[in-house]
Amino acid sequence: MNIFLIGFMGSGKSTVGKLLAEKLNLKFIDIDEEIEKQENKTISQIFKENGEMYFRNLEKQKIKEFQSKKGYVVSTGGGLGANKENMEFMKKNGIVIWLDVSLEEVLKRCKEDTNRPLLNQPLENLKKLYEKRKNVYSMAHVHIKTDGKSPKEITEEIIEKCKFLQV
Prior knowledge:
Layout: E1 3-6, H1 13-24, E2 27-30, H2 31-39, H3 43-50, H4 52-64, E3 72-75, H5 84-92, E4 95-100, H6 103-110, H7 123-137, E5 142-145, H8 151-162
Parallel strand pairs: 1-3, 1-4, 2-3, 4-5
Helix pairs in contact: 1-8, 2-4, 3-4
């Protein structure tokens, strides 16, 4: 069984994912970090040099590796979980958990982060992207609201909600 954490950038997928993997004695993997290692570039560089479509294809390739892997908590990039095809794949190969964060909270958490290329756009565009992605995120097995909660509290809530799913 794998656990896939999805949500908008800054929702806490990597931080919560590490805690969750530790608590459940599973392995942790961050898709964005894996892509950066593979390409030997930051995500910003990949976007700039190769474009968003190239990056989205790399994400899709990475997630497909979990067809034959078990026992992972997977932190996905914000766009990976917003793709219907990827969502269907993850749902067939594990439990998908949506870490739902408000856009206001995203902006607070990410204001110092320069490695998020999608933040470099007008606020109106960011709002549209956020709303569009929420439609696909809502297909997840489990929905966790993260605003005002610590990573530890979110981890505990995931464990509690997933008991019935027999993680």
